[in-house]
Design goal:
It is a single chain. With 813 residues, the chain is an alpha/beta fold. Helices cover 41% and strands 17% of the residues. It is built from 27 helices and 24 strands. The strands form six sheets. The chain has a seven-stranded mixed beta sheet. The protein has a five-stranded mixed barrel with strand order 1-3-4-5-6. A five-stranded parallel beta sheet has the order 8-9-12-7-13, sandwiched between helices. It is elongated, with a radius of gyration of 42 Å.
Length: 813
Amino acid sequence: MTKHTETAGQYPVIPLRTEVQLPGHVGPLEIGREASVRAIEAATRDDNLIVIVPQKNPAVRDPGQRDLHEVGVRAEIVQVVKHSPGRFTCVMRYLERVHIDALVATEPFLVASVSPLQSTASASADALIATTTKVRDFLLAVVTDAQAKEAKTEGKENKEPRGELTRAQVQAIVDPDKLVDAAAPYLELDREDLTVLLIETDTMKRLERIIPSLERQATVLRLKADIGAELEGESSRTHRERVLRDRMRQIQEELGEQDDNAEVDDLRKKIEESKMSDEIRAVAKKQISRMSQMASSSPEYNIARTYVENLLEIPWNVFTDDRLDVSAARAILEAEHSGLEKVKRRILEFLAVRKLAPNKHGPILLLVGPPGVGKTSLGKSIASSLGRKYVRISLGGVRDEAEIRGHRRTYIGALPGRIVAGLKKAGSMNPVFVLDEVDKLAADMRGDPAAAMLEVLDPEQNKDFVDHYVEVPVDLSKVMFICTANTLDTISQPLIDRMEMVELSGYTTVEKLAIAKNHLVPKQLVEHGIAKDQLILEDDALEDIIHSYTREAGVRNLEREIAAVCRGTAVRVAEGATTVHIEKKTLDTLLGPPKFVSDMAERKPEVGVVTGLAWTPVGGDIMFIEARIYPGKGELRLTGQMGDVMKESATAAVSWMRSNAARLGIDHDKIMTNDLHIHLPQGAIKKDGPSAGVALTCAVVSVFTKRPIRNDVAITGEIDLRGHALAVGGIKEKVLAAHRAGIKIVFLPERNVKDTLDIPEEVRNQLDIRPMTKIDDALAVALGDAPPPTEPEPAIPPPAAPSRGSMGERLPS
């Protein structure tokens, strides 16, 4: 880098992304870019002189000569403060503007060759003097006010204010360009204005550029001074308020801010025209009154305006007319959903009651069922059948109570809760409101949103629901709430008590086939751009997809497999095929080999292996129970992630077997000289509940009698030590699972026969559902054609000092 004389020469360059600096003042400058840091270090080793140049585009990270303006400012480094090895704060004294002749180096930092910037004058000398005088007068007024404020804040003891400029210094400035540079820090100029002042060489244009801002600021200061003088001479509070309002209006007119009053008047007019109640209208007017007394730039003004706007967006007393045609509603529900008869019947009942009693509150339904059975989409169909607006809110993972009730207005960025936001979105006070995944609500330190839902879903309380943000009662009594959940285990009992529960079980094969033909296939054809006549999908192919490629309670995986068929069809159509015909035998070319094979197809009657039935949150399932014996000391071993209740069922099954060993043809010595191992496959999955008691007993009896258990029989039911089959839950889901798995005979406790009424007729016709009162009813069929026992049950002989964990002893938890 060469030496320089006076202004001309070569200097390190610091490009500025967003800032624009003008000569004539001292100020800090943050340095963060690596090249700029090296430029500062080089300048401090030389003569502390550097050139500051603004970039044309702030987004450029490594600017070249094309990215920099042609004019910069030569500055002197007064002080350097190192925050870290790559971050400095430099105090700069900005000296004069210079012209960037050329960049002579770009590595390791920018170096520019500069020359003094020559000013020009497009106006006459007299015009230039007059304009300079005008700018000086305005600047004197601004500087005087700034000094007065500084002196007031510093205290009376500080006789010499510490402003950057004094009146004497302003009057001493002769050069018009320097006067412009001195005035710029006192003005609210954006980057574009500052850039123009930096690169402009015409002195008159620079003066004219800052006159409007100076004049405006000087006018505001004059009006403020007039207000202060008038208030000092008045003692009446009423007169002072009138004077303040008049002066405020004058200031707004001078600043061109008359729109503030227009905004307040517009909000006041909307409040009068809205359908809100007198109580809510009074609250809104109070906020409008506060706004009229505040400056529009005040934070409180914006808070009040946002609050009033939110009040106006709530559809107070706006209701849509219900479509009370029961026949039309039934037709819509049948067209859009197959099955789900319970829910459809409940909606039609509501319509009928609504027709006879118009003021009846909206129902609050809880749809409980496995994924993919249509709980969420059913809400949209209900809204369509009723002619109401539809709103859906997903509550999965919501942890903050304020999500439901809203945030208080004292917080920055506060908004109403999701309930009020849903009403605003619907535009009416009686929409169909779907609260999706209500069982996924979670609680933490910020509160329990499920507790906040108690008021929302209580028909006796929700007519006066109060959102923390709105703080006025919101009537939710006309809203039809439909909640969805996969399980009841995670929902609090008080919340369940407020809702009418409707259980949705899995679909049968017939229902899935109807859903696929009427809904899923047409939907996927549209999504994949396939015409109806370009794909012929036979019913036997659809049934094979249902049985061999999916195993679920709902139809989501079925839709995915149909989409895969459509994708394969799209490829063939794109290659020139006019029609694609899909049959059962050609499915594997599109979907690959079958993913599921009937559990019964691979099984044969085996000793000690019985098929049980299980209920899960995603539908029913079959569960194999295996038992084996081997030489030992009569101990019982349980594996397969059994819960405590299931372990107790296994112990009860063994105890019943021992107490009835003689009539079952089991040698007591065989029991005491062999260990029994009961295992439930799929060991990574936890299993619990009492409903496997009868099946466990059958497996134990089978392994000790060496009689195989039929593979087409499935059993569910709890047992007691007297051998009774006790009622259990989830009958519909379990029977549907047995039907999907190819089971022929299902044993249920006699007390559960009433639950079979909910099972579709086509499933009941294909299964042999047999009630049982005692374990012997199931043993007689599951173990073959053995005659039922006729002799009374003998008492179990006491074992000789059984070891801990033996088959005659209750297992520890």
